[in-house]
Amino acid sequence: MKKIRPFCLVLLSFSVFVSVLAAQSVLADGPIVVNAPYARAVPPGQPNSAVFMQISNASDQDRALVGAASPAAEVTELHTHRMEDGMMKMRKVEQIDLPANSTLSLQPGGLHVMLIGLKQQLQPGDEVSLTLLFDQDNELVLTAPVRTIMPSGQIPSTHKPAAQLGHPDGSRGGQ
Ligand SMILES: [Cu+2]
């Protein structure tokens, strides 16, 4: 009769733990890897929010994120921020380019996946399911934890606070 050594059990539970962690923080679709996705917590009643992440393209080929969908919102769009007339405004973009061998950050004040018309509350501790559509007909489903982002957090200092009004990934004010 075989005995299971305690050491093996420790290893086994450790590897299970690691793969659970990996499933939450890293998602791969061939050469495309998504790291550390998270959604912005918003107060109840706020209609919009955004999801951020890092996307790496480890291939020698330029790729692109071409769309997104989420059951958490009526509409899910790819957005960026642009300076227009001295104001930082967000704009829908048709795609987000992922140049070969590069990592791109979707972050507050910059590129983001916009959730418009929230159908669920986004409180810290909640989770948002998100499907990312890449070119070449690849799609990737991930779960993003909801986190509180300080209104002033992670926004480049060149952005004027007033220009952030009305944007859920920029500040709590406006709209
Ligand atoms: Cu936006």
Defining key terms:
175 residues, mainly beta, Immunoglobulin-like, 11-stranded mixed sheet, 1 helix, globular
Description:
The protein has one helix at residues 6-25; strands at 26-29, 32-40, 48-57, 63-69, 73-84, 87-92, 96-98, 102-106, 112-118, 127-134, 138-147. The termini are far apart. Strands 1, 2, 3, 4, 5, 6, 7, 8, 9, 10 and 11 form an eleven-stranded mixed beta sheet that branches. The chain has a single domain (27-164), classed as PCu(A)C copper chaperone (Immunoglobulin-like), CATH 2.60.40.1890. Helix content is 11%, strand content 46%. The protein has one helix and eleven strands, in the order H-E-E-E-E-E-E-E-E-E-E-E. Strand 1 (26-29) and strand 2 (32-40) form a beta hairpin. The chain is globular, with a radius of gyration of 19 Å. The chain is mainly β.
Helix content: 10-25%
List the ligand species.
Answer: copper (II) ion
CATH class: Mainly Beta
Which blocks of ≥5 consecutive residues have pLDDT under 50? 8-24, 153-166, 169-175
The share of residues in extended strands comes to over 45%
Question: How do the helices and strands line up, and which of them pair or pack?
Answer:
Layout: H1 6-25, E1 26-29, E2 32-40, E3 48-57, E4 63-69, E5 73-84, E6 87-92, E7 96-98, E8 102-106, E9 112-118, E10 127-134, E11 138-147
Parallel strand pairs: 2-11
Antiparallel strand pairs: 1-2, 2-3, 3-8, 3-9, 4-7, 4-10, 5-6, 5-9, 10-11
The structure holds copper (II) ion.
Residues 50, 79, 90, 112, 114 line the site of copper (II) ion (CU).
